[in-house]
Design goal:
Layout: H1 2-24, H2 27-38, E1 50-56, H3 60-70, E2 77-83, H4 87-94, E3 104-108, H5 112-118, E4 121-122, H6 138-143, E5 145-146, E6 149-150, E7 153-159, E8 161-165, H7 176-186, H8 201-210, H9 227-236, H10 249-257, E9 263-266, H11 270-276, E10 281-284, E11 299-308, H12 315-326, H13 328-338, E12 341-342, H14 351-354, H15 357-366, E13 370-371, H16 378-393, H17 399-417
Helix pairs in contact: 3-13, 8-9, 16-17
Length: 418
C-alpha cells in the first residue's frame, strides 16, 4: 500500500513540473516558434521575376513591337526594351566596365566582329540550337556569323530595291543595257531617267558584286584593284554622266519624290517618303548586268538581338527571350507596322506579309544579296572606297591608278589596326 502511495505521489509531482514548465513559456517564445514556422520556404511561394534589359537604337515602331512581343513572357520574365543613344559607342565601353552592360542588345549585324573580338558577346548557340534557327533565311544566318560562331538572332533584314514612278516609267528595264538606253532617252530638261548614289560604296557595291568583285572578303583582304572591280567601275561609269554629279542622298531622293527622276535604287526607308509625296510607286527586280548575266547585287543589313556574356547567370530567361523572337509573331507584327522583311521564312505564309509588294521584293532580292561584311576591318573600307569612287566618278581620275592607290591605302590602314 505504501509503495502504491509513493508511485502516485511521484506521478502527481511530475505532472506539476510539466504544467509549471508550460506556464513559464513567455508569449514572445510562442511568437518566435510561430514565426520560424511561417518563414520556412514554401514550394507554392511565387518566384521573383527575372529582369532582362535589351538596349536598342532603332525606330520607335520597331522597339514598340519588340516590347509588346516580349511582354508575353511576363510575369516570370520582365523584359525592358530600352533606347540607348550612340549604342555602338556604349557597347564599346562595356569591355572596360562589364557592370554597365545590358543583358542583350538589338542592332545591325555589321558590328558583330568588333564586339565579338572585344570578348563581350556570347554565341546565341549557347542558349538555342542551330536546329531552332532552321526556319531563318540562310542569308540572315550567314550575316549573323563571325568566325564560325552565330552571334546574332536575326529578326528582320533590309536591302536596296529598284523603285520607279509608274506615271513616268511604264515598264522597268530588264537589263542594265536597257537601263542605260532609257537614261539616254529620258534625261533632259532637269528630269532624269534614273538616279542613284553612284559614288557611295553601299550603293555602288551592287554593281561590283554583279561582276564578282568585293570591297573586302571574309579574310579581311581588300579587293579594290582586282580586275573584276576595275571592270565593274568601267562599266558603271557609263551611267554617271546621266545622273546628278554629286550623287548625294538628299539630291537623289528629292528628285525622285518630286517626280523629276523616273527611277532610283533605294532602301525601304524611301518607300513611305515616296508614298507621302504621292508617287505612284512601283518596285521591280534588279536589272541584269548584260556582261555577267547577274542582277545588280546590293548589300543587305540584318537587324537582330545579341547576348552579352554578363547575362550568363540568367540563362533560362535569355533562352526564353530568344525562343520568343524565333516565333513568327514578331516578324509578322514588324511587317505590318514597319514594313520590315522578316528573317523567319515562315512569316511569308501570312497573307499580310506575302501581299506586301516591298517586302516580297526584298525577299526575292535576298536570294542574291551580299550581307555587309561584319569584320572590324570593314570600318576603314567605307572611307577608302568612297574616296576612290569620288575621284573616278566626280573628278574623272584614271580608274586603274585610283584603284591601285585605294588598295594600298586600305592595306596600310588595316595593318595599322593590328
Amino acid at each position: 500500500m505504501k509503495r502504491a502511495k509513493k508511485t502516485l505521489a511521484f506521478l502527481l509531482a511530475a505532472c506539476m513540473v510539466g504544467s509549471s514548465l508550460a506556464a513559464c513559456q513567455s508569449p514572445d517564445d510562442s511568437a518566435l516558434t510561430k514565426s520560424a514556422s511561417s518563414s520556412a520556404p514554401s514550394e507554392n511561394a511565387p518566384k521573383e521575376p527575372v529582369t532582362i534589359t535589351i538596349w536598342h537604337e532603332t525606330d520607335a515602331a520597331v522597339a514598340k513591337a519588340l516590347q509588346s512581343e516580349l511582354d508575353k513572357l511576363a510575369p516570370d520574365i520582365v523584359v525592358k526594351v530600352e533606347r540607348k543613344e550612340k549604342l555602338g559607342d556604349a557597347l564599346k565601353l562595356v569591355g572596360n566596365d562589364p557592370s554597365s552592360a545590358p543583358d542583350m542588345y538589338f542592332y545591325a549585324h555589321d558590328k558583330l566582329g568588333t564586339f565579338a573580338q572585344m570578348g563581350i558577346l556570347s554565341p546565341v548557340t549557347n542558349y538555342i540550337s542551330k536546329d531552332d534557327m532552321k526556319e531563318l533565311l540562310p542569308m540572315t544566318v550567314n550575316a549573323a556569323t563571325f568566325k564560325d560562331e552565330i552571334y546574332q538572332l536575326p529578326v528582320y533584314f533590309e536591302t536596296q530595291m529598284f523603285m520607279y514612278n509608274k506615271k513616268l516609267m511604264k515598264e522597268p528595264p530588264k537589263t542594265t543595257d536597257d537601263l542605260l538606253k532609257y537614261m539616254k532617252d529620258n534625261t533632259k530638261g532637269g528630269t532624269y531617267g534614273f538616279v542613284e548614289q553612284h559614288s557611295t560604296p553601299y550603293f555602288a557595291s551592287a554593281w561590283m558584286h554583279a561582276y564578282g568583285a568585293s570591297i573586302i572578303n571574309d579574310k579581311a583582304e581588300p579587293g579594290l584593284n582586282s580586275q573584276q572591280m576595275i571592270d565593274s567601275i568601267i562599266y558603271h561609269k557609263q551611267f554617271v554622266p546621266y545622273m546628278p554629279s554629286d550623287g548625294e542622298y538628299n539630291t537623289v531622293t528629292t528628285l525622285f519624290k518630286e517626280g523629276k527622276a523616273h527611277a532610283t535604287i533605294g532602301g525601304p526607308w524611301l518607300v513611305p517618303e515616296a508614298k507621302a509625296a504621292k508617287i505612284d510607286l512601283g518596285i521591280a527586280a534588279m536589272p541584269i548586268v548584260n556582261a555577267t548575266g547577274k542582277p545588280l547585287t546590293p548589300y543587305s543589313g540584318v537587324q537582330g538581338v545579341c547576348v552579352l556574356k554578363t547575362a550568363k547567370s540568367k540563362k533560362d530567361a535569355v533562352t526564353a527571350v530568344l525562343k520568343q523572337l524565333l516565333k513568327t509573331d514578331i516578324g509578322i507584327s514588324l511587317a505590318k507596322t514597319a514594313n520590315c522583311a522578316p528573317a523567319n521564312s515562315k512569316c511569308y505564309d501570312n497573307a499580310d506579309v506575302s501581299g506586301n509588294e516591298m517586302i516580297q521584293a526584298m525577299k526575292t532580292t535576298a536570294e542574291a544579296v551580299v550581307p555587309m561584311p561584319n569584320i572590324p576591318e570593314m570600318d576603314v573600307m567605307w572611307t577608302v572606297t568612297e574616296s576612290m569612287l569620288a575621284n573616278i566618278n566626280k573628278n574623272n581620275a584614271n580608274i586603274k591608278t585610283e584603284c591601285d592607290k585605294a588598295q594600298k591605302d586600305a592595306l596600310d590602314k588595316i595593318e595599322a589596326m593590328k
